[in-house]
Structure formats: C-alpha cells, structure tokens
Amino acid sequence: MKIKNILQTRYGGLILFSLIFLSLSFLIRTILLITDFQNADPSFVHFLQIYAYGLFYDLVTISYFIVPFVFYLLLVPSRIYRTKIHKWVSYVFFIITIGILVFSGIGEWFFWEEFSVRYNFIAVDYLVYTHEVIANIRESYPMPIIILGMLLLSAGIFAIVKKHFDKTINSETRFVSRLKYSLILCLLPILAFYSIDKSTAEVADNSYSNELAHNGIYQIFAAFINNELDYKAFYQDMDEKEAFTNLRSLLKTSNSEFVSDDVFDVTRQITYPGVDKKYNVMLITVESLSASFLTHFGNTETNITPNLDTIAQQSLFFTNFYATGTRTVRGMEALTLSLPPTPGFSIVKRPNNENMFTLGNVLKSKGYATNFIYAGNGYFDNMNYFFGNSGYDIIDHKNFSDDEITFENAWGVCDEDLFTKAIQVADSAYKDGKPFHNFIMTTSNHRPYTYPEGKIDIPSHSGRKGAVKYTDYAIAKFFRDAKKHPWFKNTIFVVVADHCASSAGKTSLPVKKYHIPLFIYAPEIIPAAEINTLSSQIDFAPTILGLLNMDYTSKFFGKDILLDKPNRALLGTYQKIGLLRNDQLTVQLPTKRTEAYLINDQEPSATKLNPEELKDAITYYQTASYLFHHKLYNYTEK
C-alpha cells in the first residue's frame, strides 16, 4: 500500500509522527555538527556517512518509540476511535508526543554543550537524581524562555500536520488490516533489539562523528539496559590463569611479596624501612580540574589558577598524571580503590560494593579517623553508601548548620564553606589524638558555575573560567587557614582532579582530555619537586602510603610512583577502556574490537596493534572485573 493510502488509515498518525521525528533528528544532528564542525572530518563522504548512519539509528529509535501506540491502534474499536472525544484525546497525546521530541532535542543541545556527546550514562543519572539536576538546570539556563519556545514550536508543528492527522482520526480500518500492520511494526523493534547496538554503524576513527550519527533517545535507552558490561562477553579475553599470572608480574614491586601461591590471590605485603610516619592526609578532589587550566601546561588565555601555579612550585608536582575516567565517581573509585575502570557504571554506583579494599579501610586499620566530606547530598551517585560501607565516616550537606553556609547552589555549599567544615573535622580528630584522612569532594567548579561574589575578579555565573578561579582562590585560602592549626605541620595535603572539564575528542579515548594535575603539598615534610613519571589515579593510594612509610597488606593495582615508576596509565569511558604506555594507547571496545594509537604532541594517529600491549591491557581489565565479581577485592582484617 502506498504511503498516501496509509496516511488515510488510523496508522497514518504514526507516519506523520515518524516524519516529524526524522525532521527534528536531522535538524538536531545538523546543529550539533555545526557546533563542533572543526572536530569532524570535512569531506563529503564523511558527512554522507554521518547522515546515512544517523537515519538508520533514527528509524530504529522510531520502531521502539511507537510500540505502545501500535498496540493502542490495534485494540481500540472503531466506534470509539471515530468519536469527537477520542479525537480531542488524540490531539492532546499527539501534541505531548511532539513536545517530548522537541524537549529531547533542546536537552540534547545543552547536553552536547556540556559533554560533547549524545545522551549516555550521565543522562540516566540525571533522570535518577532529579532534585540536583532540576535545580542545576534552573540555575544554569533561562528555563521560562526555553519552555515557552518549546511549547510554541510544538504547537506550530501540530498546526502544520493537523489537516493530515484529522484524516487518520476519521478513517475506517478493519481489524484484520490493523493486525497485519501491527505485527509488522512490532516485529521491527524485536529484530532491532537482538541485532543492533550503538556500535552497529559507526563512522570510523572519529568519535565526534560517531556521536553525531547516533540518536540521543536511542542512546539513553541503550544506557538503561547496559549499566554494566560483562567483560568476557564484550571484550577480548584470555585464559583466567594466564591473565592472573601476567597480572602478578605487572603488580610486583621492589618492596612487595605475594602472601599466597594461589595465582588468583593478588594480596601482597608491602614493606618500607623504618617506622610509620602517621602523617595526616587531607585529600582535596577538585571537580573538573583539567591540567590545561594551569599556566604550567600552557594556558596563556587567562590567569585563572594563580594560586595553584604557585603551590605547584612548593609541592611534589606530578605533571604526567591522568584521570581514569570522565565522571566524579570514576575518580573516586580510582583514588580509593586503586582499581582500573571496569566497563559500565563505576563500582561506586554498583550493587555489592560493600567493604571494598580502599585507602580508607587501610588507614582506618592503622588507627586513622577517616572521613568523606562532600558539599552536597551524598546520596547522589550512591557516594554515601559506597564510602560509608568501605571505611569512611560521612559528612555531607545535612551536617552543615545554617550558620555554616554562606553560599550554596544546586550541588551544595561553596568550596570555602566545605573547607571550613574540613578544618573543623580535622580539629576534632586532633583533639582526640588521632591521625586523620579526609577525602574532600568540591563542587564549585560545576555548572551553574555560581559562587560568592567579590572573591575574585570574574563575576559569578559567567562560566567555567570564573568557577576555576574561585576554586583556586578557595584552596589557597584553605591552606592559609590550615596553617593556623597545630596539625598543619604534620599533614600531607593533596590536590587532584576527579576528571577533566571535557572528555570529547576525535579518537576513542582522547588522552589530552584525561590529563590532570596532582599536587602533594606538605612544606614542613616533603621537599618540592617535579615528577614526570607517567601515572594515573590508581597510583595515588600506594604513593600516599609510601610517603607515610607505612607497611600494609595490599590488593591495589597501583604503584608507589616515587619508588616503582608505573610508566603507564589506565583510562576509559563506560564502554571503551585503554592502556597508555610507551607513547601508545591500546583501546578495547565492545564486541571484542581493539584499536591502537600513537600518542605525541600532535594529533593521535592510528598505529599497528602491539600484541604485548594488548595482552597487558586485557590483563588489567579482565582481572579487575573478575576480582570485583568474585568478591576477591574486599577488605579483610589482618
């Protein structure tokens, strides 16, 4: 039957909806392409692929989207379908459906502006944590104007197609014909569900283009059903015993001995000569502090980190240090667990993550007071549950009295208020005669980029640069205030990012977008030096314990950077996981695919896969997944 004839059946509304969907998707894809045009390969064939693959994913998404409407159109009797009441109800639902598409399109633009990707796991989180997210959106964007525009656009689209939609309402379609159409329309999403995923059609070697070719609604659906990826099902693997044998060789250091001959047991005894130092450890994890913000790494646009640039000269300054992921929970996972970023959600957000082998549990066993101090509500991203069940006491927004809050936004109190609370917590531990470890998580360098006025020369709510400079100011003030307290001289202060401000790039894992600074500041304890060893967040915990000269039992995957140079970094997204070593990035992707890139000061370039590098990459990620799922990375009192 011709489309014109189908338009005159009750299924004509689905045709109209599909045409609207495809038109809006084409418009969104084009706007996003223009937004990041410089990152897409400028060739006609390349653009043709983006739109051809894009049409493919749009059609797959439509097939899912219309399923409930197909069942409705099949089952509703003609005597009801052609009534005036049903006509007006249909108008309402059709307008609402168009509104959802328009709303999704507007949301995608803002999401792309923030993350340079289509909807993904982050968007799923945003649907779960509505309070913080809605407040953040209201504080970041002119929502009344956006909503008005959305309503006007939706109404305008409906006005254009109303004449055709009325014909579908007044049509007469026999049940046998409806059943035939419905079976065909339901078969399509079933076939798609079992045969198509987000990697089925990709524009090769350009992550921006792959994102443009996808459909945001499809992406968020895929994220819902794939919150964790089984390593052996999706990635290249090897024999488990072979993997753990290789892991043992990768983890062995000059001061460690495995406690068991069982190849699957990675527990080692770590020893340092002399006695434990019992220094306090104050860890400041800064939201989205890219290395590129610092003048040391070439930022000449604006002087937004004057204090951190000064602190770098007074610290152990790690200049070749990398985040393991692109979300705060990934940074937390690596800094506390010293574990590679296994595919899917961070372990912080997964079930069965209690009593993990964390830095907090190690220090708590040595008599330390260990605290997780957060500016907002720690139920967000499951942070309170993870930290509270793995060696840390929780201090979050509910522990701030009204007179302790001078400024707050959607994500919590400002960095100054957070640091003031951290000093109070340190004072309490000192009064009790306990060494302490505080894990402090800042939030001011996060959209909506609001902070107290009058502190810096950039107005609040004017963008990322102002938020970075305010955080820089607050950290310097924190150090000045801490110097007035008796525990300062015996404290190691750490400043490190959770992840970079942006994670998008042309390659699967754009290495420059994982580069973060690490400062270890203890002027009374540790001489200043610049450390250029390639390392990542999983090496933080062993390095700190080394500075404490602490003997301990370890399951950590990381190494003491100052003793046994790691000379490798592990980094990933939710689906792509990589090993950076010897100027080569080895990337593993779902469906057991692999890529390799040569990393230098210029753009990364594809290169031949090194079998030994791939073997080690498989080893790190396969064994990390195995240990977590078999509860072999849990903390056991010795």
From TrEMBL:
GO terms for cellular component: plasma membrane. Substrate binds at H446. SUPFAM superfamilies: Alkaline phosphatase-like. GO terms for molecular function: metal ion binding. CDD domains: LTA_synthase. It is a multi-pass membrane protein. Mn(2+) binds at E287, T328, D498, H499. PANTHER family: LIPOTEICHOIC ACID SYNTHASE, PHOSPHOGLYCEROL TRANSFERASE I. This is Alkaline phosphatase family protein. It comes from Ancylomarina euxinus.
